Amino acid sequence: MKRFLTTITALAMVFSATAGVAQTKGGGGQVPAATATTDAPSGINFGDDAGAFANDHECDDPRFTGWGTASSTSQENTMHDASDCRWLHNLGAIRLTRVAGESSPQECAIINFGDDQSNWVGNGECDDPRFAGPAAARIMNLEDIGHDASECRQMCQQGSVWLR
Known about the structure:
- This protein is α+β, with helices and mostly antiparallel strands and 164 residues long.
- It has 3 helices and 8 strands, in the order αββββαβββαβ.
- It has a two-stranded antiparallel sheet. A two-stranded antiparallel sheet has the order 3-5.
- A hairpin with a 4-residue loop joins strand 1 and strand 2.
- The chain is globular.
């Protein structure tokens, strides 16, 4: 985590040289000033900072994927971590998760789904955070990557989950 924060802080310094910034993050660095909920160039509505984990240098909004997202995300944080997500999106560290129309069940044939070693195997959801969709778990943890193979494979083939 310390290495991640060091990298983010360094990126913030570079970014702040070219954009308006605001002091936040508990004094741990600078992030771009957030004045509107919708980012004009991207058209993304980032929401607000009302989430429990807002302003922690990670994007906790499960609509996003990338190395700047939190290791565990929950639907409760959807649109409630605007400053972090906008900042990381503008840096290119995260992007919006793909939607069903950007995927096809044929992709499932080339995915390495892994094994069934997750604590959540057999719960009727795909718990692998590489996947999104209506059959994906509402709370995702990095430790479940590649460890809910049978459910994720079946749901991928049905089109109810897809790679983020």
